[in-house]
Amino acid sequence: MIQKNAASGTSTAAPPAxxxxxxxxxxxxxxxxxxxxxxxxxxxxxxxxxxxAELLNARLAxxxxxxxxxxxxxxxxxxxxxxxxxxxxxxxxEDVEEYVDLLAxxxxxxxxxxxxxARMVADRxxxxxxxxxxxxxxxxxxLSSALAAFGKVTRKAIDQVEELEDADTVDILTEISRGVxxxxxxxxxxxx
Length: 192
Ligand SMILES: [Fe+2]
What we know:
Layout: H1 27-32, H2 46-76, H3 82-109, H4 118-124, H5 136-163, H6 167-188
The chain binds fe (ii) ion (FE2).
């Protein structure tokens, strides 16, 4: 087993790939990292593509977090509505997985790098942690809160990207927002 040097955090002499603007491992440091673009013949200005890719990576972290929460609900739900909720939560997961792909692949189309590892997501997500609940009603409450939170930041991203004049990303975000609103309706209908 190869042991890394825990004190220095490095195992090679390679220079840091990106300049550090804050102490290593902090939220600020990760968010402050500049995003380098790969060359592309896409005619959107590089400044636009950089900013949109940053925004999309932020929402990608939220979306991957949301997807794991759908599965968490799918696996752990109990109670008289078990089968209906178990299936519903998996249907939502399938759509959210598609949203994850849409966000990540748009980043790459713009010349950016999709940043969706578990560690990146844990560091960046704006969603609250999923609660340790079992009862169907509690899962309905928890997952509707997560869907609503993601819907809110996605709607905000639509406005932000509209200002940056990237109509295609606006279209992708609108599609996602529309889907999230639909699933929020499906989940909330269980408590209305
Ligand atoms: Fe399953």
